[in-house]
Amino acid sequence: xxxxxxxxxxxxxxxxxxxxxxxxxxxxxxxxxxxxxxxxxxxxxxxxxxxxxxxxxxxxxxxxxxxxxxxxxxxxxxxxxxxxxxxxxxxxxxxxxxxxxxxxxxxxxxxxxxxxxxxxxxxxxxxxxxxxxxxxxxxxxxxxxxxxxxxxxxxxxxxxxxxxxxxxxxxxxxxxxxxxxxxxxxxxxxxxxxxxxxxxxxxxxxxxxxxxxxxxxxxxxxxxxxxxxxxxxxxxxxxxxxxxxxxxxxxxxxxxxxxxxxxxxxxxxxxxxxxxxxxxxxxxxxxxxxxxxxxxxxxxxxxxxxxxxxxxxxxxxxxxxxxxxxxxxxxxxxxxxxxxxxxxxxxxxxxxxxxxxxxxxxxxx
Length: 365
Description:
alpha+beta, 2 domains, Alpha-Beta Plaits
């Protein structure tokens, strides 16, 4: 091993020792024995957290690994967490923490690049040693704040309300992002994505919603009330339109029962919101029939029904455009005229059948 390689190896070991609270010294069998966790369960939890499976004789585990396994096993044995739920929870935690860790390391790399004196082994070790406890306390604080916010509402609800409840699901999509990626530098794309992420986070939080996940050029969010969902969608369009550095947005909203599982959402309502986003024009909001009926009585908005559209999985998807009420809003007679115009001018859609696991049989002639 050359001298530069030796220095790099020493730096890696020092950083690992700081972050992991000790050196790697235990094999998989030793961890299972010391923690009291069956080897099969320990391996399953390790994989669920997103780490590669180590060979039987590889000493890659620390005292921290033993303590974490012991705590998880005690929760399972106490009946607080089912074994299957523990694996699913570990998978969710691993996925989110992996993304968080990657983003923080990239930020740290930028700091070191801007300050070459920090690249020294001793200086970098001190920097990591100083930052890690502060970041840990900050993340713990944010987690507790979110935990408190959800606990107030959810711990008094029934099991059915926790797993499946009526919500507004929305997708907001940057129009023309694929073209933008082809004519922009990496730095320009990062700036656009960061600006979009910041805008989405601010608008969704201000209007009592929750971001489920960011999907590159798209954000998936939920809101508990139709009015909150409408405000999020319209405010996103307005703010993006006023920002010269952001492309226009389009939004799809749907209302109904949503399955919430480990921070994600599932169900036909999610699919409908996604389909509506894909057919919405730039700078517009499309809502499904149930949400449009609910918002029709709200004086703050106007809805204009569109003719049914065929999209993947839905042969006749009914929708309406959503706008703020005001002097520029179309009158009922104008909406009717526009609806007829849409019917005559929009291209004909093939009548697709809903997705089905069982193919239809052909009729015999």
